[in-house]
Amino acid sequence: MATWFGGKAEGAKDVEIWASTFDGKKWSEPKVFGTEPGQPCWNPVLFKSAKGTLFLWYKAGPKPDNWTGYVRTSADNGKTWTKPEMMPSTFMGPVRAKPIQLANGTILAGTSWESYRNWVPFVDRSTDEGKTWKRSNPFPVPEKFNQIQPALFEAKDGKIVVLMRSRNPLTVCRSESKDGGETFSPAEETSLANPSSGIDCVRTKEGDVFLIYNPTSVLRTPISLARSTDDGKTWKKVADLETEPGEFSYPAIIESSAGTLEITYTWKRTHIKHQSVDPKKLRS
Question: Taking 80 as the threshold, does the pLDDT of residue 280 lie above it?
Fold first, then answer.
């Protein structure tokens, strides 16, 4: 299943949340899954918990500094859904990238606030299947601000690693938690250039971490995959998914039950593109 926001333009009052499902041969006709009369919708996120609950989180409101979060759930793999439910003020579920779930059932969702002059990342933590949430400390780069939209993975040693976009500096930034996502270290710059655009990552069953991102500080092209074998300390770019002029952005990446990397991203702001990649072919 894939989900996105679409309408006349980002932030336009007709923007709604759309979704489509893939049966292995074709994608279904897109349907509206979230709407707010007179207001734009934003940044939907899908996640299936270990207990089988399928979550759809999204936001609605004039702009990111005054979003309201909404959530819908499905107990039958997306055939039927609950009605949209407003989340408590300032809580909105994962703000762009999917959450992760630990072995003890804890769900960790990367979130952030985009206030005047200051973008700040957090991680929200739920121990009751998404019913209630507790927020971590903020963890921007010291003396540099504007990191948002954290993407998470669990390292081999049990630490929680967070990667996020940043507009100061124009690199991917990294933070860690040693206590299961309750608190995080101050974020640090990495060597990965990024033009303050969305990223996502996944740690595969084989232990490799794959990052999808724009590897430049200037444009949202190309869009590429990088691989890390040391829990995100070092990276090697292993594939370019798009290289032509235009914008390729807002990516999502998961590992399927078959071990493939299933990827979606915005294609030139006109379509959603899906690619399936065999990670074994990216190793060298």
Answer: yes
What number is the average pLDDT over the span 86-109?
Answer: 96
Please report how many Cα atoms fall inside a 13 Å half-sphere around the Cα of residue 4, on the Cβ side: 22
d(CA 192, CA 216): 8
Contact of 35 with 7, CB cutoff 8 Å: no
- Ordered alpha helix ranges (H), the chain: none
- What distance in Å separates the CA atoms of residue 105 and residue 42, rounded to the nearest whole number? 27
- The model's pLDDT over 221-241, given as tens digits with 9 standing for 90+, comes to 999 999 999 999 999 999 999
Tokens 């579920």 correspond to 93
Task: Output the DSSP codes for 134-200.
Answer: EE----PPTT---EEEEEEEE-TTS-EEEEEEESSSSEEEEEEESSTTS--PPPEEEEEE--S---E
User: Which residues share a beta bridge with 195?
Assistant: none
CA dist., res. 190 & res. 113, Å (int): 22
93 pLDDT more than 80: yes
Q: How far apart are the first and last CA of the chain?
A: 31
| Residue 88 identity | P
Cα-based angle 102, 182, 57 (whole degrees, multiple of 5): 65
What is the number of alpha carbons within 13 Å of residue 191 lying toward its C-beta? 8
User: One-letter amino acid identity for 130?
Assistant: G
**CA angle, 34 as apex, 31 and 39 as ends, to 5°?**
125
**CB 164, CB 110: distance < 8 Å:** yes
Q: Identify whether the C-beta of residue 174 lies closer than 8 Å to the C-beta of residue 154.
A: no
